[in-house]
Amino acid sequence: RRLYFDTHALVCLLEEKGFTTQQSEVIVSALVKIMNTNLDMIYKDMVTKVQQEIALQQVMSHIAGVKKDMIILEKSEFSALRAENEKIKLELQQIKKQVTDEITKVHADNKLNLNLEKSRVKELIEVTRHPVLPVSRLLFKEHHAQQDRALTQTDRKIDTEVADLKTMLESHKLDNIKYLAGSVFTCLTVALGFYRLWI
């Protein structure tokens, strides 16, 4: 250890102030001991440059390991989200296909029913052209009213089925939008976590 003052000059100064040489040397040696003790206490709490570099390398290696783990986690998370999105797309396509099949089936049934009713009405019109009894005319009117009621009921059933299909499609769309929004927010959260980690 270096002493940053001249001990001999201090001894001479003390001798000039009236101390003897022995007293001056004792005072200076006591001051040197006190300084050495203080320096020992300070050095216990201090870290050497080599120790500081070792600690810095350990911290940097730990940060690199965390970054690597975060990159692996990000890749696995994004791949899982992509797989889930593909699964949802396939389910939506299947639902759309089912809905279109149901709609075409309902339209085909309606066309068939309407064609049958038209043919019946034509037959009844042909029958009414010939002279008939009043009783048969009354029966024809009742039959015509029944057909009208059946047609209105069929139209109502078609309307309710189409409305139910539209409601089901809208609910599936809303569920898909909610899931996609959750996925986007999850990706943003992971990206912000990476951004904070690298900053």
Automatic annotation (TrEMBL):
Subcellular localization: Mitochondrion membrane
UniProt keyword list: Coiled coil, Membrane, Mitochondrion, Transmembrane, Transmembrane helix
Transmembrane regions listed in the UniProt entry: 179-198
CC terms in the record's Gene Ontology section: mitochondrial inner membrane
InterPro entries assigned: CCDC90-like (IPR024461)
Gene3D superfamilies: 1.20.5.340
Gene Ontology BP annotations: calcium import into the mitochondrion; positive regulation of mitochondrial calcium ion concentration
Family: Belongs to the CCDC90 family.
Protein name (Swiss-Prot/TrEMBL): MCUR1 regulator
Species per Swiss-Prot/TrEMBL record: Loxia leucoptera
